[in-house]
Design brief:
By secondary structure, this protein is mainly α. The chain contains three helices and two strands; from the N terminus they run H-H-H-E-E. It has a domain of 37 residues: Histone, subunit A (Orthogonal Bundle). A two-stranded antiparallel sheet has the order 1-2. Strand 1 and strand 2 form a beta hairpin. Helix 1 crosses helix 2.
Length: 95
């Protein structure tokens, strides 16, 4: 897959990035280089290789999965103009 200048302009527009013409040409070659590297990675044989979270073997830290209310309801709604029982109150918008 290769990227042309129209695709770069389209992606820049969708991501709300302002590009000058010279920058768009440079980005075209850079994006093509990135996509070429990704294609190289897809050729690597990873059969039998376990997924890793780090280059060093280590045990993941875990916490107990406890259901709580977070204890922050008062903090969350304290700046709201109107609340009731930790819920935001808003004007009715549907008749």
């Amino acid at each position: 897959m290769s990227v042309d200048i129209d695709t770069v302009h389209r992606v820049a527009h969708l991501s709300r990035i302002a590009l000058k013409e010279g920058e768009a040409e440079r980005m075209t070659s850079e994006l093509n280089a990135i996509l070429g590297f990704v294609e190289q990675l897809s050729e690597v044989d990873v059969e039998g290789v376990e997924p890793m979270t780090s280059v060093r073997p280590m045990a993941m830290r875990r916490r107990d999965d406890e259901v709580t209310d977070g204890g922050k309801a008062d903090d969350i709604v304290k700046n709201a103009p109107a609340t009731e029982d930790h819920f935001f109150m808003v004007p009715k918008v549907v008749e």
